[in-house]
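B., you asked whether I could sanity-check this one before it goes into the benchmark set. Here's the sequence:
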Amino acid sequence: MRDSGTHSQDPPGEQVMKKIKGVPLRFPAAGGNGAIAAEKPAAASHVMALDRALVRHLLNMLDDPPINVILWNGEEQIGSQSAPVARVWIRDRKAFFKVLTRPDLHFGDLYSAGRIAVEGSLVQLMEIINRASKNSATIGIVKKYLAHPLNRSRTSAQGSSRDNIHHHYDLSNNFYKLWLDKEMQYTCAYFPDPDMTLEAAQLAKMDHVCHKLQLKSGDTVVEAGCGWGGLARHMARHYGVKVKAYNISHEQIVHARERAKTEGLADRIEYIEDDYRNVAGKYDAFVSVGMLEHVGLAHYGELGEVIHRSLTDVGRGLIHTIGRNRPGFMNPWTEKRIFPGAHPPSLREMMDIFEPREFSVLDVENLRLHYAKTLEHWLERYEQHVDQVSSMFDQDFVRAWRLYLSGSIAAFTTSSLQLFQVTFARPLDNSVPWNREHLYTDRG
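And here's what the prediction gave me:
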């Protein structure tokens, strides 16, 4: 998802999606290298009247969208338009009935396995599904599955947190290098100008965070969940601070230490391979970018206590996290297959971090469309390297991550997910800024 290179007057949400929607995506068929449209369906069981009726009922539940469904015998059920945004190929009858029983989980599994395939815009398909699930009372009944114990997020106790992080972040540094920016920022970028490159927007994000924290030379900073260490290096290099950065991903810590040593920053940054709950010392600033999603609601009190004991009397803090407008569970497929243990909180849920210690919330910013734009860049780069990804893993993995990135774009453009940056301080700190001028001046 790169910059669109356009200066159109479309609404912001349309600008965000313009490029990726403007180029039809023809994805490889399962087990082959050709476009799916060129492959004839495999011989399969007969399509019955019940099958057709269920497809029509499904399309009606989705508000009769511009989607065609192609059944296992090649028969095509037409949606609301002759030129659909996507054609969904269901390759066998068992896959069809499986996805009907648990669409929120089985669609992803079946797509990854190649038993369901999509020709056209996968992003637009996921947007249609997201919007329909919000607006349709019929589809709303599916949400009962999200409350089932089998679909709830995995625990984030220290031992399981390490397992969850390893599942996602320790796949391979080389895998992430294929499609992230040069600083390996795997969190939402910040686009003051929508036409910025991904690299420029990630640098702008790090400056935006540093300005919100009012960092100055000589400050000490503790970072909880540092990824590949890019923010810590940026703070040390450009703001003259000393940083202790905690992370439980071994692969990321190794990369971060090597980069700091190579760039002459090892004397200003200490990367610690340990859980955030073991943070020790006093600091002028606490920062966490992209970690809260993995903490788990049951541990917000622990995180608040860590921040409380870590900050000086005039310390500042910032938490940057994927969130939701109201409490709810992560999409079951994403939580089980991609991000185990993940829980994007609502702002009310986040207050369990701040209220018990009377932290004053100073600023809340929602960068939802910035994350959609970031994901556009990631998906475009990912698609440019699918051959390398396939050689590292397999075609099931390629499809799973295509769906994950595409579905994430759709989640942000349809407001299923938000991106919150929350800045806070001690309750008696009267040195807090009078306005937001410091966020937008002397940016460097």
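One thing to flag: The longest helix spans residues 395-413. Otherwise nothing jumped out at me.
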